[in-house]
Design a protein that fits this description.
- Helix 20 packs across helix 30.
- The protein has about 750 residues and is α/β, with parallel strands linked by helices.
- The chain is globular, with a radius of gyration of 26 Å.
- The chain contains 31 helices and 23 strands.
- Strand 18, helix 21 and strand 19 form a beta-alpha-beta unit.
- It binds pyridoxal-5'-phosphate (PLP).
- The site of pyridoxal-5'-phosphate has 12 residues, from helix 5, helix 23 and helix 24.
Length: about 750
């Protein structure tokens, strides 16, 4: 970065009569010009991260921070009469859905920060994840036209476009490069589909509706589109820089598949090697086996991708042939297995392709994203494969980049940390552990920092949502995608129990509290949408009740995204991480809260387990059934109605007793039935854990009375959060999978 030049040009910049978007584009372009080019990587081993999602968020502040000019930019703009916060008008680039996409963005940040050559490859969607609005408390989706603010952080590389062929059409893939700044400059390359109207559709939407054949085929086109463009580029570059002996390809390239969405890249890699470069199939397969690695992100059966062979054959016949061929090779290799095991590992059965099994077969390493999740992969989901491929499965507990999730979003806390332990931790995050020696000493100052961040959060919520919450409230937050397994509904019931308890006097001595929700539901996920509506109904009732509104409030923030998350994690006291044990692969929201000093109120699931292992169970609040408990409960036959006695029953009955209205669509009754009357009711064990959840929330509430000791708990979480920096995660991937040097 030519800092001096940037500063000089910025000082000269005329800001008069320019709107925010113009200024945003001019300042960003200036930074891009001064930043320099992507660091060359020829002759070295590079890692490539293929992902359908990159949930980048806002680039402006983060990039200026990475380039080391954020503070100066703020000052220069202030002198010119421009408040740097005006750029919050620029909306997020939400080219992802949730955790998996945000992880990809954090990984790129950490790799650049550590000076490792890791490059992202994905799709440049015209519209990102929808913008959420509420109408009568229900979610409505609006298109997210993120490019309307301009895209000054991307460079179009028209000279490097290439044609992607399907049986029925040709599409041009045009790369756009976003530099990722750090110790080196890495590349996030997103491909845009160009050509006919049909062709352009491929990069129009993130996750187009796939409930029809047409929708499914579009999804397959998308997955193939960026996989094929990436593979073609890597093979071509290899020939250009490293000669034509593909046996050496894995020396220079490793490809990490972020979940199964890019698994088509394996088949395409073999297709290009055999058709375009004339290698024999077994040779191509051997090279693929030394090149690819695969990350699994979920054990929910409905999320493990399978494709109808017919659909793939229709638009990509050669790919279908290769997958069938791969399944035969796999079967031969796995011949010693029993038939149940063979069935479990099958890549091709009953006319369907099993993409996770394909990935597991070819990948040199397969990793889960938290200790418990990896154990579940090894002992259950991929049990047979783990047996015949010992050493293939590894754990890589997720992380978050502490640059965005601490240094950018909580400048005040960082300054306090500096004053306590010096600034070395900023260069090497493990230095944060030094805080462990002085959490008592800095508790009071921490309370002041938390109060300031809470004040900004609550002010932001008041401006945005029109709901005013006093600064002295204890803030509980549950922000994440809306899904039944994440159990926002359980929090809703818990709030109702608190509300009724406050009204009838069974709960006394209660510290004023607010529950903050943020979540988008998949547009076609009816039950999740009903939960949003239910929580909004609870919010209007609770907030407008003069008997309780001084003690309890509820707010469901609209359009939760990365930028909102930056404010919420910094300003909250309690992080609600209450998924059904065994179902949240890792979670990364939990880590963001921890690093900003919120205590975790959660189940023994995903990375929560590692959080309390490191920060101490006494500094957090663990409740509910464990994986082992649930196994026993299932064996004994679970009857949720057994858990409806007393307060819980009253809370659950509000779904059907007329307390709240679903607007007449029957969706609250349907929620009720899913918990109590359907076959296998309450699949996610909401009622089983509700009672202990409420107890845990009340314990927190009571502990909060002693501000000092609560602050010590919170600071102990900060002090032990270094492990959850994605710098640690990336260092592990780099050493144990990618072997970058
Ligand atoms: C971190 C993050 C997530 C992931 O949250 P979980 O609680 O781990 O599910 C989802 N969405 C956004 C915007 C995030 O920043």
């Amino acid at each position: 970065m030519k800092k001096e030049q940037f500063i000089k040009e910025l000082q000269k910049l005329d800001v008069k009569n320019k709107d925010v978007i113009t200024l945003y584009n001019e300042i960003s372009s200036l930074a891009m010009q001064c930043a320099g080019d992507i660091t060359p990587t020829e002759g070295k081993r590079n890692a490539y991260y293929l992902s359908m999602e990159f949930l980048i968020g806002r680039s402006f502040y983060n990039n200026l921070m990475e380039l080391g000019v954020l503070a100066q930019t703020q000052k220069i703009l202030t002198d010119k009469g421009v408040d740097i916060n005006v750029f919050e008008e620029i909306e997020d680039a939400a080219l992802g859905n949730g955790g998996l996409g945000r992880l990809a963005a954090c990984f790129l940040d950490s790799a650049a920060g550590l000076g490792l050559p890791l490059h992202g490859y994905g799709i440049r969607y015209k519209y990102g994840l929808f913008k959420q609005a509420f109408k009568n408390g229900c979610q409505v989706e609006l298109p997210d036209d993120w490019q309307k603010f301009g895209d000054p952080w991307s460079i179009r590389r028209a000279g490097e476009k290439r044609v992607i062929k399907y049986a029925d059409m040709e599409v041009t893939a045009v790369p756009y490069d976003m530099p990722v700044f750090g110790k080196r400059i890495n590349r996030l390359r997103l491909f845009q589909a160009e050509g006919s109207e049909e062709a352009q559709k491929i990069s129009e939407y993130l996750y187009p509706a796939d409930d029809t054949e047409e929708g499914k085929i579009l999804r397959i086109r998308q997955e193939y589109f960026f996989s094929a463009a990436t593979v073609a580029e890597l093979l071509e570059n290899f020939v250009k820089h490293n000669g034509g002996d593909f046996n050496n390809f894995p020396e220079y390239n490793v490809i990490q598949l972020n979940d199964t969405h890019p698994v088509m890249a394996i088949a395409e890699f073999i297709r290009q090697l055999t058709s375009d470069y004339k290698l024999a199939f077994p040779d191509a397969l051997r090279i693929a086996k030394n090149t690819f690695a695969y990350t699994n992100h979920t054990v929910l059966p409905e999320a493990l991708e399978t494709w109808n062979e017919e659909y793939i054959r229709k638009i990509l016949p050669e790919i279908a042939d290769i997958i069938v061929e791969l399944s035969l090779y796999a079967k031969r290799e796995q011949a010693e297995c029993g038939s149940a095991e063979a069935e479990e590992m099958a890549i091709y059965k009953n006319g369907r392709f099993y993409m996770a099994n394909l990935a597991v077969y070819v990948a040199k390493k397969v990793n889960g994203v938290a200790k418990l999740h990896t154990e579940i992969l090894k002992s259950s989901t991929f049990k047979a494969a783990n047996k015949i491929y010992p050493g293939k499965f590894q754990n890589k507990t997720n992380g978050i980049t502490h640059r965005r999730w601490l240094e950018l979003c909580n400048v005040e806390l960082c300054e306090l940390i500096d004053s306590a332990i010096g600034t070395d931790w900023r260069g090497n995050i493990s230095g944060l552990e030094k805080l462990n020696g002085c959490t008592e000493k800095f508790a009071e100052q921490f309370t002041a920092v938390k109060a300031a961040k809470k004040h900004s959060l609550l002010k932001y919520i008041a401006d945005k949502e029109g709901i005013k919450i006093p600064d002295n409230f204890l803030v509980y937050a549950q922000v994440k995608r809306l899904h039944e397994y994440k159990r926002q509904l359980m929090t809703a019931f818990a709030i109702l129990e608190l509300y009724f308890g406050l009204k009838d006097g069974t709960i006394t001595d209660f510290q004023p509290s607010v529950f903050v929700f943020g979540a988008k539901s998949a547009p076609s996920y009816k039950r999740a949408k009903a939960i949003i509506k239910f929580i909004n109904e609870i919010a209007s009732k609770v907030n407008s009740d003069p008997e309780t509104s001084g003690l309890l409030r509820v707010v469901f923030v609209c359009n939760y995204n990365v930028s909102y998350a930056e404010k919420i994690v910094a300003g909250s006291d309690v992080s609600l991480q209450v998924s059904t044990a065994g179902l949240e692969a890792s979670g990364t929201g939990n880590m963001k809260f921890m690093m900003n000093g919120a205590v975790t109120c959660g189940t023994m699931d995903g990375a929560n387990i590692e959080i309390v292992e490191l920060a101490g169970r006494h500094n957090n609040y663990i409740f509910g059934a464990t994986v082992e408990d649930l196994t026993a409960v299932k064996e004994n036959g679970y009857n949720p109605a057994d858990y409806l006695k007393g307060a819980a029953g009253r809370a659950v009955e509000t779904l059907v007793d007329g307390t709240f209205s679903d607007g007449g669509d029957g969706s609250f009754k349907e929620l009720y039935d899913s918990l109590l009357t359907y076959k296998d009711p309450d699949n996610y064990f909401v009622l089983l854990d509700l009672n202990s959840y409420v107890k845990s929330l009340l314990q927190i509430n009571s502990d909060y009375k002693d501000k000092k000791s609560f602050a010590v708990k919170q600071l102990n979480n900060v002090a032990n959060s270094a492990y959850f920096s994605s710098d640690r995660t990336i260092a592990e991937y780099s050493r144990e999978i990618w072997e970058l040097y």
